[in-house]
Amino acid sequence: MMVESASETIRSAPSGQNGVGSLSAQADGSGGAGTAGTAPAAGRDASGREAASGGADSNGEMSPAELLHFQQQQALQVARQFLLQQASSLNSPGNNDSKQSASAVQVPVSVAMMSQQMLTPQQMQQILSPPQLQALLQQQQALMLQQLQEYYKKQQEQLHLQLLTQQQAGKQQPKEALGNKQLAFQQQLLQMQQLQQQHLLNLQRQGLVSLQPSQASGPLQALPQAAVCPTDLPQLWKGEGAPGQPAEDSGRQEGLDLASTAVTATSFASPPKVSPPLSHHPLPNGQPTVLTSRRDSSSHEETPSSHPLYGHGECKWPGCETLCEDLGQFIKHLNTEHALDDRSTAQCRVQMQVVQQLEIQLAKESERLQAMMAHLHMRPSEPKPFSQPVTVSADPFPDGLVHPPTSAAAPVTPLRPPGLGSASLHGGGPARRRSNDKFCSPISSELAQNHEFYKNADVRPPFTYASLIRQAILETPDRQLTLNEIYNWFTRMFAYFRRNTATWKNAVRHNLSLHKCFVRVENVKGAVWTVDEREYQKRRPPKMTGSPTLVKNMISGLSYGALNASYQAALAESSFPLLSNPGMLNPGSASSLLPLSQEDLGAPGEPLPSNGSSSPPRLSPPQYSHQIQVKEEPAEAEDDRRPGPPLGAPNPSTVGPPEDRDLEEDLGGEDMS
DNA sequence: CAGGCGCTAAACACCT
DNA sequence: AAGGTGTTTAGCGCCT
């Protein structure tokens, strides 16, 4: 159902192939990623069997992957909406919900405007830089949080209500029959509460849920006060069905669990910014009425006589709006209309699923957000929740990619230096944008900075295949990889390539063959690919003085100024490690890394976005030029991989474009084949 | 507008 | 025969 709306925007393309059609760029590029239902993504996911794509997603069931896609899609859509809101609210200082105020999104209004209906999620990704996306997601997160809270609350209320109802009804029913149903309910409730708990944890991790010092101590501590609730439940069960139950044991256990989880849920129920705990009155059923401010919850006042499912004179049971004059009548109605039967159970289940869906999505987005924030070194508006003994590892990369393949789900790690990688500059560019990346974004530093981001976010990296391949190869000690290893590197480093498998492999092969800079070397155990830096450099346009696009991008970025500084810093920081970390390199490989950074830093693209304006293109620190600087031109044009000067002695003579040194270096040290 | 670049798709050959 | 690896060609979009 929702899927359609999500993918709809993007669709319109032949689906399966996206081919080269008008959409290709977008749909394919970043698209593949987020495009939930879009066939391209889904199809390819099946890897190899893209054929299967077609309308696979239209099947009732979604695979986890599809679901994720879908969720992401939705997230982006939500983000889009937020953009609009943001844009409109930009005018009115008095922002609404305090939630985001602090971390007010910094998104160009223009973007927001554009995002209206015309942008597809993919485009959004392209247009928005990681930080911006992050901001959006943050907002989105807030919204979801809100929604979830409402859902959770509702859900709980309903479940509790049902429990009560059953309790009452149960007295007139054979206990045995009731037992099972209650158990089922209990399980549902438990499930939901677990979700809540999980969710809460996620939020806490991110700091989206602000725990008051007092609360911070832990939800569990709130037990005493909220005890009513937790303890109530078990009692309910005990008093009612538990005894004499076939599954009494398990039932009891669950009851206990429930107790704990319920507490958590309770604390969770209180919104991040909940005003003073004024109304922590537990409801008869143990449900604290904290969210009285919310539309829905507003209905059930603190009146002890009120009922969570009763408000504004009508029954709040999902899909039921029966009017009830008073509570008594309502209770009656409840017992008759919403007794414990299949229908009610089904409704509960549906509600559960809704909650679950949201929870999943939120969890995922949370994770992503966390990764993004960690990476960007940003904090939502809170003390970083993901406080880990941050030992900013030198650099994720220098280590020659020995990182354990963190699953996409793996929580993010250390924070990277503030700087938003160049990514922010080049329109967040999926493939299409690469041209920019080429010039303004040092792939290695960008990668280093957004390592986690790309690793976990299904976003197409803004680098060309060639540069990625090169990066992969150069990262290895001996600067050579087999095709398969290259594949592995791609999948290991980029979530995007984990998902969208099919085509990119072909592209990789294509690039390897096509570009002279990639040299195939027969090896003992087969063929390996190496990089001919000289060729690589050759193929890049010499210079690019302030490309219009770049400037444009730069300007469009809101926090451009601020970022500028951080970017540089980050860039420098991230680059150094590479250079100064020869530790793990073998003699020969030492040079291998250099090229990377150099190219990145000084590469022709020099026009580092940020630098462009404020600092010299080559913000390269002294060391940089020193360590690596090499001679300018490919001294001799002769063969590409000419055994350059003995690696040891790069010609200090010319300081040509930094780029060139690579070649040199590479050649020399590489002496490949 | 032309040319270059990068991407995807696809056909084909070769090898294991 | 199937699958992986390489090579080529073609068409398209974007950028300069």
UniProtKB/TrEMBL annotation:
Residues 460-533 form the Fork-head domain. Keywords: DNA-binding, Metal-binding, Nucleus, Repressor, Transcription, Transcription regulation, Zinc, Zinc-finger. GO terms for molecular function: DNA-binding transcription repressor activity, RNA polymerase II-specific; RNA polymerase II cis-regulatory region sequence-specific DNA binding; zinc ion binding. GO terms for cellular component: nucleus. It comes from the Eukaryota. Residues 293-304, 629-643 have a biased composition (Basic and acidic residues). Its main location: nucleus. Residues 36-45 have a biased composition (Low complexity). It is found in: Nucleus. Residues 661-673 have a biased composition (Acidic residues). One of its GO terms (biological process) is lung epithelium development. Residues 460-533 bind DNA. This is Forkhead box protein P4 isoform X3. The lineage of its organism: Eukaryota, Metazoa, Chordata, Craniata, Vertebrata.
